[in-house]
Structure formats: C-alpha cells, structure tokens
Amino acid sequence: MRAKPHPAAPASPVARLHPRNRHQGRYDFPALVASSPELAAFVSRNAHGDESIDFADPVAVKALNRALLKQVYGIGNWDIPPGYLCPPIPGRADYLHCLADLLATDNGGEIPRGPAVRALDIGVGANCVYPLIGHAEYGWRFVGTDVDRRALTCAQAIIDANPGLAQAITLRRQPADDAMFEHVVQAGERFGLTLCNPPFHASEADASAGSRRKWQNLGKAARGGRAPTLNFGGQQAELWYPGGEEAFVGRMIAESAHIPGHCLWFSSLISRSASLPAVYRALRQAGVYDSRTITMAQGQKQSRLVAWTYLDPAQRAAWWRRG
After folding, report:
1. Which residues share a beta bridge with 193?
2. Which of 184, 197, 227 is nearest to 209 (CA)?
3. Which intervals of the chain are annotated as region Disordered (predicted)?
4. What is the distance between the alpha carbons of residues 195 and 265, in angstroms, rounded to a whole number?
5. pTM here?
6. In this structure, what DSSP letter does residue 260 have?
7. What residue ranges do the domains of the chain occupy?
8. What residues form DSSP beta bridges with 263?
C-alpha cells in the first residue's frame, strides 16, 4: 500500500543554516583573502563598518565563491565564464547536508559516506558546485548533466584542474531540452539520490524583472538607462523554463515514474512556496510511495527541497545492503 505524499513541513520562524554547514555567521574575510588574495580588491567596509563585498557586482561575487571553495573545500582552481550562474555557496551546501540527513533515515541513522553513494545532479551548470561540495564533504561520487555544451566544457575544466576529481565526478550532456532523466540515466544504474536547482522563472522577462527587484533590494539603481546586471548570473537554461519551476519539477516527477527503482530519493529545490501545491499534485499523479518537504535557509530568504521515493521502507533499508 502506497503512502500519501508527506505534507509540507511547517516553516520555522527564523531560517538557519544546517548545523553541519561550514558557513555559519559572517564571512571571515581576512581568512578568505589569505586563501585567495585576489578577493582583497573587492573587500571594503560597508555602512555598518563591517568588511563585505558589493553583492551587486558579479565579478566580486565570483571572487568570493572562488575564495570560499578554496578555503573551505580545497578546490584550488575554479572559474566560470561571464554570464553563467554563480550560486550562493552556503545555500548549496545546505541542500547537500539535508540530503545527507535524508539518506541517513534509511541507513540506521548513519549518513552513508564514500564512493558507494552516487548522486545525479540535473543541471550541473558551468559552476559544478553541488558535485564539488558533495564530494568534499561526504566523499560521494557524482554524475552531472546539462543541455549546455559550454557549461559542461567549463565544468570539466574545473574537474581536470583539481587532482582527484576526475575519479569522483562524471559529466554527461542531455541532448533533449525537455528531458530530465531520459538519455542520461543508463540501464542498470542506481543512484542514492538526485538533486536539482530548477529554473526559477517562466520567461526571460520574468528573469529580468527578478534582477531589477534584486537590485532594488540591494539599494542599487541602473545607471545610464542600462538594465541591472544579474549579480549571480545565469543562462537561459539556468534561469527560466516555460511554466517556471512548477512545470520543470512536474516534468521531472513524471519522468522519475519511469525509472522508480533507479534511485533511492529523487529531489529538487523549490524556491516559491506557491509552487508546492502543483508539485504535490504531480507527486500524487506519479504514484510516489513517500515524499518529504524540508525547509532551508537560502541567503536572506527561506527555501525548501522536496524529495520523493517509489520504494517502501523495507526496500529503502535494503538499498545500502545491496551495495
């Protein structure tokens, strides 16, 4: 007998980072600059007298990410082309820590670590951030997929430039714009989890409007009539999809029903709480056995991930025994 999808967990009054997240509190800029001296050019005192960077400047944000990945996770060579998504590192780490806890629920409370855990990153992007952090924190192996050839070329360059990553991270191109698992999941493959940061917006116009709102929230104004720059960047496939995240995740859920035994837990970030009802309907239509909604901190806003499985508790408990 199948269980009903788990309802949304109540939102906590204050969103906090996961206890294992290494990015608690303010950024330690002296330590970051010591690890990555190029960051020093972007660090200054803000209105409160604290050291910070201009988070509306995409070059400064990229320099901060490079320093964080080097100092915290030992990634010595990381770069992305201009205009590609440069994600906030603390929020991305939170997603992985929450997934680790989820895997532990089917493993006697112990987080499974090491190369026996394989994860599938749908939309790995040029930044390759989830595989980099997930391997550094837990020793997991990753398969990262993307429709963008240039993004995959850049991600592969990061892998090749850091010793040991080539054995842990494999990249595959998704040849179909509307496919998620089809074409990239091979016969007989098993993944402990899948993860995804889906396109948030429904169109390029929505993405541009979101950028303007972000600039307003940062106290910035467009100069010379120019549109504000996306401080975290992003290409079309990274930022928008017809129907937005509801349609993207709905398609992902529908496809997952065709490979129910290939994965222990499927998952995706969900940026808008308003998207959850449509996601829950898709889960019911797909006939999942169970699902979980986990709230997280993503910068200054609250986000959540939704995870689902087609396996019953006995099947999940036996997953790791199979190896």
Report:
1. 119, 265
2. 227
3. 1-20
4. 9
5. 0.86
6. G
7. 29-322
8. 191
